[in-house]
UniProtKB/TrEMBL annotation:
Record keywords, A-Z: Signal
Claim: Signal is one of the keywords in the record: yes
Signal peptide: 1-19
Source superkingdom: Bacteria
Entry keyword annotation includes Signal: yes
Protein name: Lipoprotein
Length: 272
């Protein structure tokens, strides 16, 4: 393999699950009202995400879920105050839900690292372990928050803190996802992926502890990323956890134009 282990692509979020069986565990209560506060990102030379209060005025917010044709179906709408505070009474999606299949496993395990790795490199990863799904017949979807005000776009709960030395960059990334399941289901387990060659090594572990209620759920992805480099090699180490019940923050970062991948490009830009 001749490509370097780190590329300048953006991090992407693709949330799915995989098949298997595990004993049922009583899930938390479903989320019925989504609340939070919009903030705006500020461009700085800092490795950490900096934000400022919302300046887009009052308006409305909508929770949308994707249709099979990649269009959006509005699930629920709510109010947005000039301060950025919003509230949405959630409802069940009206568009068909997608089955959760083992074929989607790669999307989960690469949720936080796909953009740091080239497509060829991801194909070469050696992975062991697989999360288990308590009910393989579950159907699910994700919800995205759309903003309609003086500024239009999308928003998501996001945190990013970083530090660097001459030879190391460390990042702590948190991302919240709104997920709907048509029945209680648990996704638990661990997957470990590794790769090494003459340019360095990749080591990442994903730990799953998703215990979803029937209805809407808060899901958090938290990832610790460390890159240690010399003049000839680089070592990328990632430890990611996927857990339900909360978001990493109740501040939702506004994304102008509705591109939910925009904030996930920050780590990739930092590691260029």
């Amino acid at each position: 393999m001749t490509k370097p282990l780190l590329t300048a692509a953006a991090l992407t979020l693709l949330l799915s699950a995989c098949g298997g069986h595990e004993p049922a565990v009583t899930p938390p209560a479903a989320l019925t009202t989504l609340t939070g506060t919009l903030v705006e990102s500020v461009e700085t030379d800092d490795l950490s995400l900096q934000t400022r209060p919302w300046t887009g005025g009052a308006g409305t917010v909508r929770v949308v879920s994707p249709n099979a044709d990649a269009s959006d179906a509005t699930v629920a709408s709510g109010t947005l105050a000039a301060s950025g505070a919003f509230s949405v009474a959630l409802q069940a999606p009206t568009s068909p839900l997608e089955p959760v299949s083992a074929a989607d496993l790669d999307s989960v395990t690469n949720a936080f690292v796909g953009g740091l790795l080239g497509d060829d490199l991801r194909d070469d990863l050696n992975c062991t372990g697989q999360p288990s799904l308590s009910d393989p017949s579950v159907r699910a979807t994700v919800g995205v928050l759309r903003v309609d005000a003086d500024q239009d776009g999308s928003a998501l709960p996001l945190t990013l803190r970083g530090s660097e030395t001459d030879t190391n960059v460390s990042l702590d990334l948190g991302l919240g996802v709104l997920m709907y399941a048509d029945r209680p289901v648990n996704l638990t387990g661990r997957e470990v992926c590794t790769l090494s060659d003459s340019t360095g090594s990749v080591n990442y572990t994903t730990n799953y502890d998703l215990r979803l209620a029937q209805g809407w759920n808060k899901v958090s992805f938290k990832s610790a990323v460390s890159v240690t480099a010399t003049t000839q090699t680089a070592t990328l180490t990632i430890t990611t956890s996927a857990a339900s019940g909360s978001f990493p923050t109740e501040n939702w970062v506004f994304l102008e134009g509705g591109d939910v991948a925009t904030p996930l490009s920050l780590p990739g830009k930092i590691l260029r």
